[in-house]
Amino acid sequence: MTWAPHVTVATIIERDNRFLMVYEEADGKKVYNQPAGHLDPNETLKEAAIRETLEETGWIVELTGVVGVNLYTAPSNGITYFRTTFIANVVSHDAARTLDTGIIEAVWLTYEELLARKDQLRSPMTLQIIEEYLAGRRFPLNVVG
């Protein structure tokens, strides 16, 4: 059997000390996560991050950097995710846009509000990558193709 991780992207968008998050239903639970999703065929990682953010939140963003690349194996299904997390600024919002299936709403939360919801985060990576961002971990956007 050939093993292959799932390639995913996520985006950290901070505005006024709040992070753009999605409140979604995943694996039968309601959880918080960064706007995130899978890479589509013939798509770059950057294109995927912009697309997923729009589809899940209605926000058009401009990527400005990279926080990191992480591996996470979900205990619920044993799948390993290879995730690139981008940093972005908001450009505009389409409040009338229908969000992806499973997305309940897009919300802006402070770090403290995320800590208070720690048991409702989609994975430990959700908070980990925000803490890396808050600690100043940044790479230039051209670190990925």
Automatic annotation (TrEMBL):
Keywords: Hydrolase, Magnesium
Cofactor: Mg(2+)
Gene3D superfamilies noted in UniProt: Nucleoside Triphosphate Pyrophosphohydrolase
Domain Nudix hydrolase residue range list: 4-131
A Pfam family reported for this protein in Swiss-Prot or TrEMBL: NUDIX
This enzyme's EC code(s): 3.6.1.-
UniProt xrefs under InterPro entries: NUDIX_hydrolase-like_dom_sf (IPR015797), NUDIX_hydrolase_CS (IPR020084), NUDIX_hydrolase_dom (IPR000086), NudJ (IPR033713)
Family: Belongs to the Nudix hydrolase family. NudJ subfamily.
Subunit details: Monomer.
Name the UniProt record assigns to this protein: Phosphatase NudJ
Gene behind this protein: nudJ
